[in-house]
Specification:
13 strands; about 230 residues; mainly beta
């Protein structure tokens, strides 16, 4: 994960320079965001979870870096990095293509990524991605996020993530079909626009063969976790 952290730092440095290209009407800009940097407390104890991204580019074309993962008892259980090229197809919608690397759990997996990211009707922030690797494995991920403003600072945000796979991957304990679903509800308070601590609850569950793999390894197939964390961007 040192590599992903270094790449995030490099993108942040480039964004801070505010280099301009093709004139002032289309400057080179960037942004680093961590939607989730949180501590979760569930039936098996605590875990540090992160979900962040960074982009650098102009109005129509951008380079994206995404990272997410989970650490428990000082051990990284899940770690993923994506490097993507993004092109705007329509207002509020971009197509993204690139590479995804799963570094944990082992063995490592490398995927070709193709997706769409944008704002669906009723202002749902949506990220849909299809993945395929050289061994014929396929996966589909659907993520959606919504913000309900009680005030200009107090925000309730439900979100959902759904993962599906084309075939069993016993090495990583991933089952075919609907593999897992995670649903979260977080209440945040924006100290300022760039910084918002939050509390909430997250429920997740594995399905199908993923449930059987988890039970075989003596792991949970579902949990309900209390969370406390901070969302920030710069």
């Amino acid at each position: 994960m040192k590599t992903s952290i270094g790449l995030l730092a490099a993108l942040a440095l480039l964004a801070a320079t505010q280099v301009r290209a093709h004139g002032d009407d289309d400057p080179l800009l960037g942004k680093v965001t961590f939607d989730q940097l949180e501590w979760r407390d569930g039936a098996d104890g605590g875990a540090l979870v992160w979900d962040g991204d960074a982009w650098l580019g102009q109005d129509l074309d951008k380079l994206w870096l995404k990272t997410e993962g989970r650490r428990t008892d000082g051990r990284t259980e899940e770690a993923e990095v994506q490097v993507l090229y993004s092109h705007a197809l329509a207002p509020f919608w971009d197509v993204q293509v690139g590479w995804r690397g799963d570094f944990q759990p082992t063995p490592k997996r490398h995927w070709l990524a193709l997706g769409m990211r944008g704002i669906a009707p009723y202002w749902f922030d949506t990220d849909i991605a299809l993945f395929a690797d050289a061994d014929g494995r396929t996966a589909l991920r659907i993520k959606a996020h919504y913000e309900l403003l009680f005030t200009q600072r107090l925000i309730l945000a439900p979100d959902i993530e759904i993962n599906l796979h084309g075939q069993d991957d016993r090495a990583t304990a991933t089952g075919s079909g609907l593999s897992d679903v995670e649903v979260g509800l977080r209440l945040s308070y924006e100290i300022r626009r760039e910084l918002a601590p939050y509390i909430g609850v997250v429920g997740w569950r594995k399905f199908g063969d993923s449930t059987d793999f988890a039970r075989y390894q003596g792991e949970r197939s579902d949990d309900l976790e209390l969370v406390a964390g901070v969302r920030f961007w710069f």
